[in-house]
Design goal:
Elements: H1 4-10, H2 19-31, E1 36-44, H3 65-70, E2 75-80, E3 93-97, E4 112-116, E5 130-134, E6 156-157, E7 168-169, E8 174-176, E9 179-180, H4 188-195, H5 197-202, E10 218-221, E11 226-232, E12 259-265, H6 275-278, E13 298-301, E14 306-308, E15 329-330, E16 352-360, H7 362-366, E17 386-392, E18 402-403, E19 419-420, E20 423-427, E21 436-440, E22 446-449, H8 479-501, H9 513-533
Parallel strand pairs: 3-5, 7-13
Antiparallel strand pairs: 1-2, 1-4, 2-3, 4-5, 6-15, 8-9, 10-11, 11-12, 12-16, 13-14, 16-17, 18-19, 20-21, 21-22
Helix pairs in contact: 1-2, 8-9
C-alpha cells in the first residue's frame, strides 16, 4: 500500500507495507491540536510604547527583539499553556492578530486566547503564530470587561458565601490540585496583569452588564459597556419596566419587519461601586434585580477592582430539594435565573443610544406619548409603528464645520482643507403646502419654513394666550404692515394737530392757549420720537412672510 504521508513523516521505507505508517499518522492527527491556548503576557497595541529600552520584556528571547519592534498593532506577547506548557522554562512568543486591522479583537494581559499557525503539526513557537480571539468561558466567568479564566466556580456546594467587601474573587494561578497555569506562585497571573505596560495605561477594569442576544442577532461589543446590535426590535421602555422579571426581554417574540441597529454606550447607566452596592443581597427574593434597572450585581476582586458578579449563586442559599450527596446542592435560584434583565436595552435609562429601526412604536418607547407639549394645532399624537431613527442622551450636539475658524486657529493640521458647513432638517412635502424645513446656511442664515409655525406655549402649559389664533396663539406682527399702519396714524395725528393749531374759537375769535400747547407738544413728540421709533420695531435678524 502506498503511504505518502508515512513516507513524509517516517521515511521511504514506510511505503512498503505502510499500514503501520497510516496508523501512526492517524494517531498523530487524533492527538494533534488545531488550536493552542495561550496566556496573554502583554498587548502590543501602541507601537510608541515599544521604543523604551526597558519596554522589551524579559520573558522574550533576544531573537524576538526585531519582531517585537515590527509586530503590527494588536499583536500580543503570550505564553502557551496547553498541556501544562506554561510551566516550562521556554520563553514567551509573539503572536500576530488572526484578523486584519479591519477587525481588531479586544484582549487584555492576563486573559486566555486561542492560538493557531499555518502548519497543523508545527511547533506553535516556530514561525509566526496567530491569535484568533479570547477564549470564551463558562457563565460564571465570561465577562466582556475582563475574563479571569482560572476561577473554579462550583455548581454544587454545601454552603454559601456572604456578600460584602470581604468576598473577593481571585485570579488564581492554579486550575486544580497542584496544577499551575504558568511557572510561579499562586499570584503569578495577578503579577502578569499588574506588570503589563498597556494594561496599566490603557485598560479600565469596571463592571459591565452582560447582554443577552437573540439567536439571529449580530453583536459587536467592546470591553467597557459599548455595543452595536444588528437584530430585531426590543427593549424596556416607558410602558414596560424591568421589575423582577423571570426572563430577559430578548425572550419577547419580535414582530416581523422589525430589524434594528442599536448603538448603545452605557447600558444600565452608571454603577456606584460602593460598599452598599457590593453588599446588596442577591438571594431568592432579591434575585430578580433592582426595580427599574438593568445594572448588574457587583463584587470586588483581589486586585481591589469592582467587577460584575457573574457567580451570584455562590452567595445564595442551597436548594436542598436537589441535593447531590456529599457534593452539596445547587444555588437557589442559581446564576442562570439571577437578574435575567441585566444588560437588556432600556430606552429610559441607558446613557446614550442611536436606534435605527425598520419598524417600531418609537414615541411610546421613548415616552413621548406622555412627555410632550400641548400643541397649538391640536395634541401631538404618537406616530404609529413605522420606520424611525431615534437619538437619546443627556446632551446632544449637531455641528457643521467652519474652517478657517478663529476658535480653532493653531489647533488643526497644516493644510487642513477649508469647510463651509450647513445643516438641513427637512420634512418632505409640497413646497406650497406641507413641506417643513430648517435650513442653517454657511453664512449664518437660518430659515424656518412650514405651513404653520408656532413658537412658545399654549395657555395649558402656562403660555400667555389671549390671542385670536389656535389655542389662543398670537400671530407674529408683519413689520411692513405695522409700519404702514403707524405712519398713517402719525399722518392723521399730525393733520389733527395742525387743525387744532389753526383753530379759531367761535364767538371771541381768540385761540385757546391750552389747545395750542397740547397740539404743539404732540407734534413735537411725533417728530422727535414716535415716528423714528417705528424703525426700532424692525428686527435685523428675524424675517418672515
Amino acid at each position: 500500500m502506498s503511504d505518502p504521508i508515512a513516507e513524509m513523516n517516517y521515511g521511504r521505507e514506510s511505503r512498503s507495507g505502510g499500514e503501520n505508517g497510516w496508523a501512526a499518522d492517524l494517531d498523530s492527527i487524533r492527538e494533534g491540536r488545531l488550536f493552542h491556548r495561550a496566556l496573554v503576557i502583554e498587548t502590543l497595541c501602541d507601537p510608541s510604547l515599544r521604543d523604551a529600552e526597558e519596554a522589551f520584556p524579559e520573558t522574550l528571547d533576544d531573537t524576538f527583539e526585531m519582531l517585537y519592534r515590527q509586530a503590527p498593532r494588536n499583536a500580543i506577547i503570550c505564553r502557551i499553556i496547553t498541556d501544562e506548557a506554561g510551566t516550562s522554562e521556554i520563553s514567551d512568543i509573539i503572536a500576530f492578530p488572526f484578523f486584519s486591522s479591519h477587525l481588531a479583537m479586544p484582549v487584555k494581559a492576563g486573559e486566555q486566547v486561542w492560538l493557531v499557525r499555518e502548519s497543523l503539526f508545527g511547533d506553535p513557537r516556530r514561525g509566526t503564530p496567530y491569535w484568533v480571539c479570547r477564549v470564551p468561558e463558562d457563565l460564571p466567568l465570561e465577562d466582556a470587561n475582563f475574563t479571569a479564566f482560572t476561577r473554579q466556580p462550583s455548581f454544587y456546594a454545601t454552603g454559601s458565601v456572604e456578600v460584602g467587601p470581604d468576598r473577593k474573587l481571585d485570579f488564581s494561578n492554579t486550575i486544580g490540585p497542584d496544577v499551575n497555569v504558568i511557572a510561579g506562585d499562586a499570584g503569578a497571573i495577578e503579577e502578569v496583569i499588574l506588570s503589563s505596560i498597556e494594561s496599566s495605561l490603557q485598560t479600565v477594569f469596571e463592571p459591565v452588564p452582560r447582554l443577552t442576544k437573540r439567536p439571529g442577532d449580530l453583536v459587536l461589543q467592546g470591553s467597557n459597556n459599548s455595543t452595536i446590535t444588528l437584530g430585531m426590535d426590543r427593549g424596556f421602555d416607558f410602558n414596560e419596566r424591568p421589575d423582577k422579571r423571570e426572563t430577559s426581554n430578548s425572550s419577547v417574540t419580535p414582530d416581523t419587519d422589525s430589524g434594528i441597529i442599536d448603538i448603545v454606550a452605557g447600558r444600565g447607566r452608571y454603577f456606584e461601586p460602593d460598599d452598599d452596592e457590593i453588599a446588596k443581597p442577591r438571594g431568592k427574593s432579591e434575585a430578580g434585580g433592582e426595580v427599574n434597572s438593568t445594572k448588574p450585581f457587583v463584587t470586588k476582586n483581589t486586585l481591589d477592582f469592582i467587577e460584575t458578579d457573574k457567580d451570584p449563586g455562590q452567595t445564595q442559599d442551597r436548594n436542598t430539594d436537589e441535593e447531590n450527596g456529599d457534593d452539596g446542592a445547587p444555588a437557589d435560584p442559581g446564576n442562570s435565573l439571577t437578574n435575567p434583565s441585566e444588560g437588556d436595552p432600556d430606552f429610559l435609562v441607558d446613557a446614550s443610544r442611536i436606534y435605527v429601526s425598520e419598524k417600531t412604536d418609537i414615541d411610546n418607547k421613548l415616552g413621548l406619548s406622555e412627555i410632550r407639549a400641548d400643541g397649538f394645532g391640536g395634541p401631538f399624537e404618537p406616530v404609529e409603528s413605522s420606520p424611525c431613527i431615534a437619538v437619546k442622551s443627556d446632551h446632544i450636539r449637531i455641528i457643521a464645520r467652519k474652517v478657517p475658524n478663529p476658535a480653532v486657529e493653531g489647533l488643526l493640521p497644516t493644510k487642513f482643507e477649508s469647510a463651509e458647513g450647513t445643516i438641513r432638517i427637512v420634512k418632505e412635502g409640497d413646497p406650497k403646502d406641507d413641506l417643513a424645513c430648517i435650513y442653517i446656511e454657511s453664512d449664518g442664515t437660518i430659515q424656518i419654513t412650514g405651513k404653520k409655525i408656532f413658537l412658545g406655549r399654549t395657555p395649558d402649559d402656562d403660555g400667555a394666550g389671549n390671542g385670536p389664533g389656535d389655542k389662543e396663539s398670537q400671530p407674529y406682527v408683519k413689520y411692513q404692515e405695522l409700519e404702514d399702519l403707524w405712519k398713517d396714524t402719525m399722518k392723521e395725528l399730525n393733520k389733527f394737530c395742525q387743525t387744532l393749531l389753526s383753530h379759531v374759537t367761535p364767538g371771541y375769535g381768540a385761540p385757546s392757549p391750552q389747545i395750542i400747547q397740547a397740539a404743539t407738544d404732540l407734534k413735537s413728540a411725533i417728530a422727535s420720537s414716535l415716528d423714528p421709533d417705528i424703525e426700532n420695531v424692525k428686527s435685523e435678524r428675524i424675517f418672515g412672510e
